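Quick one - inputs below.
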Amino acid sequence: MDFYFDFISPYAYLAWMNPRTGPRALAARYGVPLVVHPILFAGLLEKHGQLGPAEIPPKRAFLVKDVMRHAALEGIPVAFPDPHPFNPLALLRLATISVDVIDALFTLAWASGKDIAENLPSVVGAEMMARTREPEVKAALKRETDAAIARGVFGVPTFIVGDELIWGSDRAADVERVLAGADPLDQAAAAAVIARPMGVTR
Amino acid sequence: MDFYFDFISPYAYLAWMNPRTGPRALAARYGVPLVVHPILFAGLLEKHGQLGPAEIPPKRAFLVKDVMRHAALEGIPVAFPDPHPFNPLALLRLATISVDVIDALFTLAWASGKDIAENLPSVVGAEMMARTREPEVKAALKRETDAAIARGVFGVPTFIVGDELIWGSDRAADVERVLAGADPLDQAAAAAVIARPMGVTR
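Output:
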């Protein structure tokens, strides 16, 4: 199973931290390897000329409430960083260097309520921070992001199981159905609709 | 309770048709009046310069699967119209004239698998079709859309209960929690985050 994420996304945080339906729990429960892919969400948005949800004021207001509401329902601690949104580049490059820092970085971003840029060095240390400026680290993140776009990833978090791409922290139950061989989707019917030429919306 | 929708959205269809958590079921269960608002989703997108989900090819592919999967899980019939996406203007204007046609129009759009433009006249009749070209009908839809934008509606379907705006067919359980007085959201904490000046994402 592949898991694509950006620290900028509180939904990626909610997915990652979920003890029952998070990618680590699902991979362990179904005995499949988990491959994590830090990617730059802004790169996906730029590919399609879109704004992120936190860049549209009324959508940002709903997003804040929706994330806090679902964190409360799932029993996951959440404290929005200040300022929010924030630039996630350094965090993503750190995750490209080592998957072991993902937990600490998600916790800094979404459970501390702190200024991320100010507090990041004390979480990972000066040596790791210096590595985020290395050209090969920058290139690795760009490669991951380009590969994700090539594979059809358009948002975060995204799970891919076999050929099935599933987007959204609120679709973890669907990911589990796919892993369990219990997906109710009629693949042939869906493929027929997807293959039709696109109509006009406006 | 207010319900904002556009026939273009299969998620609005799934919300409308849901026998347990649809707007009609929720309004009846909690004894609140239901006010339905047909609005032009493309108008919301234009306001923020955004594309719709069906206008981004990989997102459209996921959307088709996601809608068919959740229709199967909820036991709601679904058959994508051909062509898809389609121009929903005539359907929206018809719903502005009379709420009684909403069921028939949603069924034509999302459960018939037919070409909507071709089959619409036989569903509503020539007299109703003629009315969709009246200036005051066109103006009514534009008024509804502008009023929705002014109220902070950014997507469809949207429910508003009191001052609480909730977006998405997959958030009907949250709408029910609000109606039941059991919303777990810490409103003061959310308001404090929303009021902060926006940071920079990229």
